[in-house]
Amino acid sequence: MTHPPPRHAKALSRWLLAGLPIMPLPFGTLAATERPAPASIPQESANFADLPVRTNLQAFSVVVSPGGPAGGCISGYTWQPTFGGCRRGRVDTETQTDACPAGYRGTRTRTRSRTAYMLQANAVDVQYGAWSGWTAWNQSSCTVDLPPSGETRPRKPGNSNVAEVRGTTFGANGNVYAIVAIDNATSRLVCQGRGTSFNEQQGDTSDIIYTGPFQTDVASCSIQASGAQATAYGNCNTTTGGDGGFCQPATLTATITSAAGCTVSAETREAGRVVAAKSYDVCQ
C-alpha cells in the first residue's frame, strides 16, 4: 500500500513548480527557546578551583575530580595536602643581630627561615610552615680588639702556635705543615707554613718557615674576620697506620674567643667539634 505524500510536501512541490524562490530561515528560528549564557565563575574566591571534567556521552556520565597533587593548579602552584588547596611557596628569612663576643668589636648575625604557602584562589590566605633552626653566628664583621695601651709588660717576639695540620706530597718533597698562630704583637691570628714546598723553586730543600696565607695542593691556610679566625687544611693530617696505611685529611678552624691585655684565648674546631681550647700569654 502506497501512502500519499504529506500535505506540506505537496505544497513545497507546487511552490517549486511555480518557480518561486525559497528563502532560508534565520539561524535559531527553529529553536523554541534560547538558552542564556552561563554565569561567569568568580576567579578570586575561596570556593573557586580549576577541576578537570570528563564526560561519557554514550553512558551519559560525568566525572569531576580534583585530579591529585597537580590537578586544578595553574603554573607555579602545587597541591598542598597539609594546608589544602593549590598554593605557591615563598621562603621568609629572619635575621638576628648581636654584639660580637668578648675580645671583639662589631656585630654578628644569624638567620632562620620558614616557608609561606599562598592560596591560588585567594592571595590573602597564607599558611606558614615551621621555623628552621638558627644558623651558626656569622662573625665575618667582628674584629679583634686591640691590646690596651696600659700594659706594663712588653710583648713576646714572634708568634704563639694554636693549631697545626699536615699535608703530604707523595714521592716528592715530603710533608708540608699549615700552622695557625697568634701574632703576639697584635693578638691576631696569622698563617704559617713549614716544609720544603715554599722555596723549592730556588732549589732550597730545607724545612723552612713561610709566613702569610697560602694555598698548595696538599696544605693551605687562610685568614677570616680580620684575624679573629683562621682555617688550615692538610691532606694527610693522620694515617691509618702500617705500610699500606691511608692518609686522613683534616680541616681545622681556629678562633680567638677573647683577648684582654696579655692573655689571648683561642679554640680549635674540626668538623664543628672543639678539639682544643687554650689561653696564651703573649707578653714577656
What's this model, at a glance?
By secondary structure, the chain is mainly beta. The protein has 2 domains: 78-141, no CATH class; 146-281, no CATH class. Helices cover 4% and strands 45% of the residues.
Would you write up a description of this structure?
This protein has 284 residues and is mainly β. The chain folds into 2 domains: 64 residues, no CATH class; 136 residues, no CATH class. Helices cover 4% and strands 45% of the residues. It has 1 helix and 18 strands. It has a 6-stranded antiparallel beta sheet with strand order 13-14-15-16-17-18, with no helix packed on it. It has a 4-stranded antiparallel beta sheet with strand order 3-4-6-7, with no helix packed on it. The longest helix has 11 residues. The radius of gyration is 41 Å and the shape is elongated. The protein starts with 6 loop residues before the first helix and ends with a strand. About 2% of the residues have low confidence.
Keywords:
mainly beta; 2 domains; four-stranded antiparallel sheet; 45% strand
Helix content: under 10%
Name the average pLDDT. Answer: 77
Structure summary, number of beta strands: 18
The amount of beta strand, in percent, is 35-45%
| Number of helical segments with 4 or more residues | 1
Layout of helices and strands:
Blueprint: H1 7-17, E1 53-56, E2 61-64, E3 78-79, E4 86-99, E5 104-105, E6 107-119, E7 126-128, E8 143-144, E9 159-169, E10 174-183, E11 188-195, E12 208-211, E13 214-215, E14 219-224, E15 229-239, E16 247-260, E17 263-270, E18 273-281
